[in-house]
Amino acid sequence: MSYTGSHKFYDKVARKFGDYGSSGASYTTKYQTENPEEVFKKLLLKYSEKDKSVLDLGCADGRFTVAIAPYFKNVVAIDLSKGMLKAAKLLQKEKRARNINFEEINTFDTPFLNNSFNIIYSRRGPTPFNEISRLLKKEGYFIDIGIGEKDCQEIKEVFGRGQDYGKWIESTLKSYKKELQSFGLNVILGEDYFATEYYPDYRNLDLFLQGVPIFTDYNSEKDRSLLEGYISTHQTPEGIILSRHRIVIVARKQ
Predict the structure, then answer these.
(1) How many CA atoms, within 13 angstroms, populate the side-chain half-sphere of residue 57?
(2) Are 3 and 80 in contact (CB under 8 A)?
(3) For residues 84 and 123, is the Cβ–Cβ distance under 8 A?
(4) Interatomic CA distance for residues 148 and 166, integer angstroms
(5) pLDDT of amino acid 24
(6) Vertex 168: Cα angle to 163 and 169 (nearest 5)
(7) Residues of the chain predicted below pLDDT 50
(8) CA–CA separation, 75 vs 238, rounded Å?
(9) How far apart are CA 73 and CA 118, in angstroms?
């Protein structure tokens, strides 16, 4: 999905589920090793300092941005979804987070000067490596948590479509490492993380799929038979399983 397509999807999610874009689906998660979201946040804060400027690529509803902002001098958070940015600014006002600038900017074509930021991060958002390299200061860090190639592979196979459909043979982590290095960024950490989510029933899995871009064209009525078919072969005593795959990367500009 293109980044412009992504912001239209999240506008739709914001309209449907309210200010912070959460569908309210209930599920539990079991990780093979660690929770990659916690690993990502820990790494981001490891490099945090009160005098550092940070760029958030694809901030969405701003909840994560607001949570990490106190650890930095200032955070510029950009996105193209008007709905998500509206939610982010409401949250910022509610939490009185004064060191954040939420801006409607395309991450692939930003107006910022070269060498503007100490840290750039993307939390399951866009990764314009050429722009990241341009905007990072020397010895600055890029920290990313992204979607791995095997994420939700089984349900995509049942539906015959989906985000990065059919690309589960090629390693996303290896591809990212190679591309980052080509733009002068030295990868100092790169890991795959796998997990299984368990949904208690049809309703909760259906709600979840409405709020995430696994299928940007997901329709509860039209896709009902496909979802029922998936559930029939992925129901366990713990719930309906959904396999997840994340990658976490830290790269330093040379």
Answers:
(1) 27
(2) yes
(3) no
(4) 12
(5) 80
(6) 150
(7) 1-3, 20
(8) 40
(9) 10
- How far apart CA 99 and CA 68 sit, in angstroms, is 11
- Which pLDDT belongs to residue 35? 98
Q: Work out the end-to-end distance of the chain between its first and last CA atoms, rounded to an integer number of angstroms.
A: 30
Which residue's structure tokens are 């940007």? 216
Question: Both tokens of residue 9?
Answer: 């999807």
- Distance separating alpha carbons of residues 236 and 197, to the nearest angstrom: 11
Per CATH, the number for 3-253 is 3.40.50.150
Q: Extract the tokens encoding 151.
A: 């994420």
Torsions phi, psi for 100 (to 5 deg)? -120, 135
Give the 3-state DSSP-derived string for the chain, with helices as H, strands as E and coil as C.
CCHHHHHHHHHHHHHHHCCCCCCCCCCEEEECCCCHHHHHHHHHHHCCCCCCEEEEECCCCCHHHHHHHHHCCEEEEEECCHHHHHHHHHHHHHHCCCCEEEEECCCCCCCCCCCCEEEEEEECCCCCHHHHHHHEEEEEEEEEEEECCCCCHHHHHHHCCCCCCCCCCCCHHHHHHHHHHHCCEEEEEEEEEEEEEEECCHHHHHHHHHCCCCCCCCCCCCCHHHHHHHHHHHEECCEEEEEEEEEEEEEEEC
Task: Write down the pLDDT at residue 49.
Answer: 87
180 in Cβ contact with 120 (< 8 Å): no
Report the distance separating Cα 56 and Cα 84, nearest Å: 14
Closest to 65 in 3D by CA, of 109, 35, 95, 106:
95
Crossing angle of helices 224-234 and 202-210, in 10° steps, is 120
